[in-house]
């Protein structure tokens, strides 16, 4: 990686602030990608009108503007010209510079990879079914596995949409859609699956919901209460019915040998792959940084020994791509 300082950067911070990187005045060779960050309005104008020929390679432009400048017709016209010319524009809110995470995600995805051209829909987190106005039926899923899948898919070049059930964190570079309940998750998945090539259902979905919901807080003074439960909608079944050709990866969390559960779910749900894991093992359950899984397909079974969830996500995506190639 090489860094070129603009003349204003030299005056504002100077080379001493970049002692651990390679500073150059011109690229030493044709770069794979060029990142212009921050890019003020005059930089956008010069680049849009061909006044800076140094950056003809894959260019990612990160504007840094005040709200008034960002909305000015001339600036918008320059951004449109850059898009027409094939440049990647990463804008923050109100013209401000995008976050570091969004910039890194854009750089990684712009370089291409084995999943380039694929649109991946990922569910993550755990649903919550309201009992009353303050209580709910939920689970301990942190969303780490689903977000790891989303992050690795971006790194491999895919376009990624995350339907996040009760997760505060937004994975940089993804389209993020927050939901709370099973029904909200079902609606979001069915709506967005139309644009996806594959679905990874990593979210922990509640199997039951209260048969009737109390709109106000249930008071302790009312005494003992019984709670009647009703089964929730089967999201994978609905996906299979509406999108029979969509490649689907399901998850089966169990206590004990996960292979039998994974194979049963593979057949019953009509999934293409099912990832089974034993949540009773210490250090690989909900909220853990590591996982240990079996990836079960109709003909193949792959064991992934304990590793970080990012490493497990890579193997899941590798299995997904291999199966999709076979189906083609």
Measure the end-to-end span: 38 Å
Q: Taking strands numbered 1, 2, ... along the chain, how are they ordered across the largest sheet?
A: 10-9-6-11-14-15-16-17
Order of helices and strands: EHEEHEHHEHEEEHEEHEEEHEHEEEH
| Total number of distinct structural domains | 2
Overall mean confidence score, pLDDT: 89
Hey, roughly how much beta strand do the residues contain?
15-25%
Number of helices, where a helix is a run of at least 4 consecutive DSSP H or I residues: 10
CATH superfamily of the largest domain: CoaB-like
In angstroms, what is the radius of gyration? 24 Å
**CATH hierarchy, class of the largest domain:** Alpha Beta
CATH architecture of the largest domain: 3-Layer(aba) Sandwich
Helix content: 25-40%
Name the poorly predicted regions. Answer: none
Q: What structural class do helix, strand and pairing data support?
A: alpha/beta
Tally the beta strands.
Answer: 17
Question: Major sheet: size, sense and barrel closure?
Answer: 8 strands, mixed
